[in-house]
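ARCHIVE CARD
CATEGORY: sequence design from structure
SOURCE FIELD: tokenized fold
FIELD CONTENT:
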């Protein structure tokens, strides 16, 4: 297992770094993203550390989608957005920047896939 003691998400979960927490239970912490991609951008963090989906334990994996569904519904309700993106990157090649498993969830209001023009 990796040493997470210097990881920013680990520090946030353990109260060692500031964050705007919007939800917390015994298994997860949900925070507002410091650098939001869009309105309502939240990060869903399991309290049991994992680098990526391949390192994620079964308990965290089982609880992620029910919580993510609640967070997405709250984002949609609060922002009035047309849609919600849920993203999760695994490894540097996939765009993972912070090496602590997390879901990003954020609103979409201006762009829809029906707006894309193909040649």
């Amino acid at each position: 297992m990796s040493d997470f003691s210097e990881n920013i998400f680990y520090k946030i979960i353990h109260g060692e770094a500031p964050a705007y927490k919007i939800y917390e239970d015994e298994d997860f912490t949900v925070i507002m993203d410091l650098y939001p991609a869009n309105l309502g951008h939240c990060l869903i963090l399991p309290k049991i550390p994992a680098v990526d989906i391949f390192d994620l334990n079964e308990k965290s994996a089982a609880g992620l989608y029910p919580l993510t569904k609640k967070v997405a519904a709250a984002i949609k309700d609060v922002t009035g957005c047309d849609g919600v993106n849920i993203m999760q990157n695994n490894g540097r090649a996939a765009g993972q920047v912070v090496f602590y498993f997390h879901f990003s969830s954020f609103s979409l209001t201006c762009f829809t896939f029906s707006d894309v023009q193909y040649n």
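CARD ANNOTATION: The chain has one domain: 8-110. The chain is about 25% helix and 20% strand.
SHELF: design records, drawer C
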